[in-house]
Each structure stands twice: as C-alpha cells, then as structure tokens.
Design brief:
The chain has helices spanning about 5-25, 30-35, 50-60, 75, 80-90, 110-120, 140-160, 180, 220-230, 240-250, 250-255, 290-310, 330-335; strands at about 65-70, 105, 120-125, 165-170, 170-175, 190-195, 205-215, 260, 265-270, 280-285. It is α/β, with parallel strands linked by helices. It binds 2-acetamido-2-deoxy-beta-D-glucopyranose (6 copies).
Length: about 350
C-alpha cells in the first residue's frame, strides 16, 4: 500500500471526527455532509457482476444468509433521533453488539443515506420516482402509504434473492438478541403483535409489521407478492392493515405458511408488553403519536435498562430470566401518564394519528 493512501485514509477519519464534533455542537450544514458521504469500500470478488443490492446484502448478512433490515429517512436520522436510540439499544443490549454488522439500513432519501454511511453501517439507497420521503410522514398521508408500499416491494426482492431477515422499525429497541428468542422450527414468518392472546398460532392476534422475522422460500415470496398485489384494491389502507386483512381472509392456510405470533412479554410494545427488564427482548414504541414523544419514552426505557444492567452486574447472563426489580417506565411522552400511575397494563391506546418514519 502506498503512503498517500494511508494519508488519505487518516485524513478521512480526521474529517469525520471533525464533522461529528460539529454535529454534536449543532453546527452543520448539508454540503459538508454530502461531500464525505462515501467511504472506500472493500473490493468484493469481481468476476461475477453483482448489482448494488446483491453486494450490500452479501456484505450485511451472516453466513446463513440472514440479516436485519430497517428503513430510515431524514427525520429518523437527525442527531439524537431514532437512529441514534436504535444504535444505542444494540450497543447496550445483552449480546446484541455483533448485530450492528448485520444491519442493513434502507435509506429513502440522500440525507439518511449520508448519515448511514457516516455511522459506517451497511446502507442502501432506495429510489422511488417522484416522491420526497425526507420529512416526517404523518400517519396515513399519501406519501406515508407510498413509502410503506415501496418498502414492501423492496423486501419482496430481498426474499426472492434468498435472504432471510428480521425487519425492524427504528423505534424498536433491541435489548436482547432476538434470534435467541425466536423459534427455530421451520417457521416461515414470526411476527410481533400489538396485543397477544397467549396463542402463538392464533391468527386473531393483531399483528404489527414493525418487527418480524421472515425466512426466504417460495411460500414467503408468494406471500409478499400477494401482499404487494393487494395494494391496488386497498385504497388508503396501510400495508400492515392489508396484511392483517389477508391473514383474516385465510392467506396463511392458502399458502400453507407456518406463522408464529410473537408474545409481547418478549417482543413487546407500548400497546402491550411484559414491562419486565428481565424478560424483554425488543420493545416497540407503537401506540404512540409522534417522533418526539417516542424518543422521550424510549430514552426513559433505555435509562431503566442501564440501571437494570448495572444491578445485575453485567456479567451474569444466568440472571436474565429473573424478574427485574427495576421499575418499567410509564409512557409519559406518548400517553401523558404520570410516573406514579401503575394500573395501566391493560390500557388500550389506539391513537387516530401516528407517525411512523
Ligand atoms: C443465522 O445465524 C445466526 C448466528 O449464528 C443465528 O443466531 C440465527 O438464528 C441464524 N438464523 C437462522 C434463520 O437460522
Ligand atoms: C420454488 O420455486 C422454484 C421456481 O418456481 C421451483 O423450481 C422450486 O422447486 C420451488 N421450491 C420449492 C421448495 O417449492
Ligand atoms: C392495479 O393497478 C394497475 C396500474 O395502476 C392496473 O393496471 C391494474 O389493473 C390494477 N389491478 C387491480 C386488480 O386493480
Ligand atoms: C433461569 O432459567 C433456567 C432454565 O430455564 C433455570 O435453571 C434457572 O434457575 C433460572 N434462573 C433464575 C434466576 O430464575
Ligand atoms: C383491565 O383488566 C382487569 C383484569 O384483567 C379487568 O377486570 C378490567 O376490566 C380491565 N380494564 C379494562 C379497561 O379493560
Ligand atoms: C391527523 O393528521 C392529519 C395530517 O396532519 C390532520 O389533518 C388530522 O386533523 C389529524 N387527525 C387527528 C384526529 O388528529
């Protein structure tokens, strides 16, 4: 390697440190951002021509062609915003750190893509003609719905290429390694629920598409094709509701899918969860209206987690199945609940307006 390369390399590191500092002090502008957006990539085997997506999928996946996929836009990647919290959760989680290398972020705008690259994550820019996805998308606006559908189409492509994945919203905190809690009995789809009725195969459980594992095979590819094809006749319906409708109409039986609905005790959300740091694997800021409220409550949740980890001395994984003595935070930001209020476990909150991405 010649020394000018080393020089350029350290220069890039220096500049990124500088920009990070600028960021932290709140002074930054987009030109600085974009001008350093691409870092040198490692050379992949050059003989088979690969498209860009294949290359990033290969880079991000584990040996068993499994990876974690999330979608980000500008609003979600601002400093101190959802992406930061998400990465923090993986950093602070129990046995989750390695998953950072298997996370592929799908950026729907240039700012998000640049920010993703700056974090040195695996990044892919999803192009959708004529739509600006950079703002905070208000639940059920036209742009919101378009964005949801373009992500479904994209994920179908990933499945078709033979990759299994966990799809996660960015407002899901990963406190333990989900792969260890997921079932490994040949399930095609394991999906989180807003509420859980105790029956892992009961399709009456109300699904939440903010967190699910899907195995790549013909059946799941057909499922996603069917899901996307239902876009037309689902005027104004969110893709989650469309999948829910397909399930009610019997798509699981028709395609002979093995589906497991995930227990909110482990894969919980603000709608419903075990409220126990000793058990939680992932926790989703569902049933919540805005990014700001979500951030406030997820931050409180992470603070509780830090306390919990401090008490269980951080070394013993044996303790991870005991019930936590650290109090679960109330969702002040999302529900406006006072910290001392306790009997809220079966409160149902279905806000008419939600903000997702
Ligand atoms: C893939 O490998 C990882 C790491 O060994 C494991 O945790 C995960 O369960 C595997 N995924 C599948 C779908 O088997
Ligand atoms: C999946 O589909 C391909 C192409 O349609 C077919 O060749 C293959 O046999 C199918 N595999 C299974 C397990 O059904
Ligand atoms: C779906 O939309 C396409 C293009 O807008 C149209 O050609 C097609 O007929 C529609 N299909 C259904 C089932 O409505
Ligand atoms: C955790 O679970 C294991 C087996 O599942 C059990 O042997 C152990 O006693 C449990 N530990 C605690 C602290 O409950
Ligand atoms: C909450 O749960 C308790 C016990 O399960 C039940 O008696 C009560 O009616 C529930 N409240 C609401 C509002 O559903
Ligand atoms: C939901 O958000 C839309 C778009 O911002 C707004 O027009 C509408 O009034 C809101 N509805 C409620 C019930 O807050």
């Amino acid at each position: 390697m010649d020394s000018s390369k080393i020089y350029v390399g350290s220069w890039i590191v220096l500049v990124s440190l500088l920009v990070l500092n600028l960021l932290r002090s709140g002074v930054w502008n987009e030109p600085v951002w974009t001008s350093i957006s691409s870092f040198p990539q490692q050379n992949k085997t050059p003989n088979i021509p690969k498209d860009e997506l294949e290359a990033v999928l290969e880079g991000a996946s584990m040996e068993n062609k499994t990876l974690v996929i999330g979608v980000v836009n500008k609003a979600y990647t601002k400093e101190g915003s959802m992406l930061d919290l998400f990465l923090q959760s993986i950093q602070l989680g129990e046995g989750t750190q390695f998953l950072r290398n298997h996370l592929l972020l799908i950026a729907v705008d240039q700012t998000a893509f640049d920010r993703c690259n700056l974090e040195r994550l695996h990044c892919y820019k999803l192009k959708t003609d004529g739509v600006d996805f950079s703002g905070e998308k208000i639940y059920m606006s036209n742009d919101f719905i378009k964005m949801m559908w373009s992500r479904t189409l994209f994920l179908t492509d990933v499945l078709r290429r033979g990759y299994n994945f966990i799809f996660t919203d960015m407002d899901v905190m990963w406190l333990r390694n989900p792969f260890e809690r997921l079932s490994h009995e040949g399930e095609d789809l394991q999906i989180s629920c807003d509420f859980y009725n105790g029956q892992p195969s009961d399709r009456a459980n109300p699904i939440n598409t903010g967190f699910y594992f899907v195995a790549s095979n013909n059946k799941t590819t057909t499922l996603f094709d069917t899901w996307y094809a239902a876009k037309n006749e689902s005027d104004g319906m969110k893709e989650q509701d469309v999948l829910g409708r397909l399930i009610r109409e019997g798509v699981i039986e028709r395609l002979d899918l093995r589906v497991r609905f995930l227990d909110t005790l482990y894969f919980g959300g603000f709608c419903s969860s075990g409220k126990d740091y000793g058990k939680v694997v992932t926790i989703h800021a569902n049933c919540c209206v805005s990014i700001k409220s979500k951030i406030k409550d997820l931050r409180a949740l992470l603070n509780g987690w830090i306390k919990f980890r401090g008490r269980s001395d951080g070394t013993s994984t044996e303790k991870s199945n005991s019930t936590s003595t650290v109090l679960w935070p109330s969702y002040e930001g999302c529900w406006g609940i006072k910290p001392d209020s306790t009997s809220t476990s079966n409160q149902t909150s279905t806000p008419s307006n939600q903000t997702l991405i």
